[in-house]
UniProtKB/TrEMBL annotation:
Domain named DNA methylase N-4/N-6: residues: 27-108
Entry keyword set: Methyltransferase, Transferase
InterPro entries (alphabetical): DNA_methylase_N4/N6, RM_Methyltransferase, SAM-dependent_MTases_sf
Pfam families: N6_N4_Mtase
Species classification: Bacteria, Bacillati, Actinomycetota, Actinomycetes, Micromonosporales
Name of the featured protein: Methyltransferase
Claim: Ion transport is one of the keywords in the record: no
Source organism: Paractinoplanes deccanensis
Family indicated by similarity: Belongs to the N(4)/N(6)-methyltransferase family.
Domain of life: Bacteria
EC number: 2.1.1.-
Top-level EC class as recorded in UniProt: transferase
């Protein structure tokens, strides 16, 4: 991947100062043009229609870009927080082997449907999904894949901060309500834990990934800050810190656009609730921006060889 100047970023004033210093260093980076199409268009015919119900889906183009960049056909790609199986499905369509772990039975069953659909649609690769708590990796997966994974792609959950989808009773009349904004009913799901518990759990997941990765293997994590009761939660900093504790080094910082780019202008794909929240904040004297990208952090095991 060609190197570009590091992308400027802000770190929350409440964030870890050591992490802020780490992110301020010069790492290779690039902008991934991954938001040219709406998510629903990217998934049409490729994923089961029920996939829209998951509140924290990764854009298929982000997974696709990472897989194309960091793996070769036939390689093994894993996602320890697989959701509806986006990473696995995109790996299959690119001729890789995909394997995922999902905590909630509902999403694991839907991921299995999407994997079967990929096979039906002619995907050259193979995919598998397992149900379990990825804080217990790698015991959830077949022992023969230890040391064989070329790439891990995942994203931390965002719990109550997800926006879901806006619907009205009919013809635009009545109060707008929110649907598709919950991960599941289990309170032990990391999505519903406090930020410090999420950080601890995510660190355990990354530590488990160490045993799965082959020498020179990479971990690609998408993250973005969110606000809780007005406070900016530095998820990106948490991911970097968790990776360091788990024995990884940060080797690239990139930006994956979730907005389209046409004639030099960004075409945002913000949700109803994102727009509503930003308008409300500005009206109350708190200038905010509509987020139109995901931070992409590329980690590599400390001391491992280049792939």
């Amino acid at each position: 991947m060609p190197e570009t100047p590091p992308i400027p970023r802000r770190v929350s004033k409440n964030g870890n100062s050591a992490v802020a210093g780490l992110l301020a260093q010069s790492y290779p980076g690039s902008v991934w043009l991954t938001g040219q199409q709406l998510s629903r268009e990217l998934r049409k015919g490729r994923y089961a229609a029920e996939s829209i119900a998951h509140p924290g889906k990764m854009l298929p183009t982000i997974a696709r870009y990472a897989i194309n960049t960091y793996t070769d056909p036939g390689d093994l790609v894993a996602d320890p927080m697989a959701g509806i199986g986006t990473t696995v499905v995109e790996a299959m369509h690119l001729g890789r082997r995909g394997i995922g772990v999902e905590y909630e039975d509902r999403w694991a069953a839907l991921a299995a449907i999407n994997i079967a659909l990929a096979t039906k649609n002619g995907a050259a690769g193979h995919g598998e999904i397992y149900t379990g708590d990825s804080r217990c990796l790698p015991s959830l997966l077949p022992p023969q894949i230890r040391g064989q994974v070329a790439l891990v792609i995942t994203s931390p959950p965002y719990g109550s901060s997800v926006h879901g989808r806006a619907v009205t009773p009919g013809r635009g009349r009545g109060k707008v309500r929110r649907i598709y904004d919950t991960y599941g009913a289990d309170p032990k799901n990391l999505a519903y834990r406090r930020h410090d518990e999420l950080a601890e759990g995510f660190t355990k997941i990354l530590a488990g990934c160490q045993a799965l990765l082959r020498p020179g293997g990479h971990v690609v994590i998408t993250a973005r800050p969110y606000r809780r009761q007005g406070e900016l939660i530095d998820v990106t900093g948490m991911v970097v810190a968790a990776g360091e504790v788990a024995g990884f080094e940060l080797v690239e910082e990139c930006v994956a656009l979730i907005a389209g780019v046409q004639d030099g202008r960004a075409i945002d794909h913000a949700s109803f609730f994102q727009r509503k929240n930003v308008r409300y904040a500005i009206a109350n004297g708190d200038p905010q921006w509509l987020p139109q990208h995901e931070d992409v952090l590329i980690l590599r095991r400390t001391g491992s060889e280049e792939s």
